[in-house]
């Protein structure tokens, strides 16, 4: 576990001394990776963004007692502000998209390119304002994590192997078989 990390890009940093970021190691290899925006000026006020997450956990998936969706809810919005101000490498930003519990850690991505600009961090109750942590911060945190943790991939199946295994197993719905 890493208690904190140091931003090493040489730019001034005004954010949370210990950003609330977590990483999960999947029990599967060869999963397509998302591209993180790390170039200066990747975050602009007014830029079109979208989020993909599970608002209210699984409650929003079953409406009126019926399963309506098994995928994350997609929401569209714009970047409303940058922290501490419009600069080449902000440490955070707000978006005008509402968020509910269960969406923390959801990706925030550009709508015109398959690039993640941050993760959803928090929202304000009864307001369409949501706070994001920049993907630059995620990249820095991951670099710090890689210095302290040795990954073990021996015996872990590839995504293709796991999907083939799930397809030929029981009659349970696939999302239940994948979670086992």
Molecular structure report:
The protein has 180 residues and is of the alpha+beta class. It contains three helices and nine strands; from the N terminus they run E-E-E-E-E-E-E-E-E-H-H-H. The strands form two sheets. Strands 2-5-6-9-8-7 form a six-stranded antiparallel β-barrel. A two-stranded antiparallel ribbon has the order 3-4. Strand 3 and strand 4 (66-67) form a beta hairpin. The longest helix has 14 residues, at 135-148. The relative contact order is 0.22.
In angstroms, what is the radius of gyration? 18 Å
- End-to-end separation: 25 Å
- As residue ranges, the low-confidence spans are none
CATH architecture of the domain at 35-152: Beta Barrel
CATH superfamily of the domain at 35-152: Trypsin-like serine proteases
Shape: globular
The biggest beta sheet reads:
6 strands, antiparallel, barrel
Order of helices and strands: EEEEEEEEEHHH
What number is the mean pLDDT?
A: 81
Assign a percent range to the helix content. 10-25%
Number of strands: 9
The DSSP helix count reads 3
Which range does the strand content fall in?
Answer: 25-35%
CATH first level of the domain at 35-152: which class? Mainly Beta
Given helix and strand content, the structural type is alpha+beta
Order of strands in the sheet with the most strands? 2-5-6-9-8-7
Enter the CATH topology name of the domain at 35-152: Thrombin, subunit H
